[in-house]
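Before a colleague's protein record goes any further, I have to sign it off. I want your independent view on whether this chain really folds as the tokens say. The record follows directly below this note.
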Amino acid sequence: MLGMSFRILTALLGSITPTPGDAGTLPVLDAVVGAGYLHPTAEFAISQETGRAWVEATIDNGGQGEDYDTYTLRAKVKNLSYNTQTQEIVYRDDGIRVTCAKVTLSKALFARPTDIRGTANCELLARLEWSRDDNGFEYQRRKHLVVELKITP
């Protein structure tokens, strides 16, 4: 049910909009979500074939069994990539190069195929916050999933 209301809001409003960030903190995504979602998380993800990296943010409602609902959003981050040679997720901008995560690829049959471990240089900050949105006709109070990338060169 909550996933359905999120998908409807996303279709009407768009899922990702930029938000202003602090110095050293980059906006990754700001998405309207259903009021019942409680737990946000964010992590890096990659494509070995394309050398691309992005952020995946997941929210859930904290329910048990059939009441459990989760939803994952993906967001592209400008200047973030996956280096297939060094197996690192790297952020590059204005002459700086920051390793955000190290990737371990497993060849074992039953092991997790990819292990991505963040470094102290990059921190993904995921939170839920209420904000007053203007849809052009009226103000509405809505819950947002906000994800930012804090970079420490």
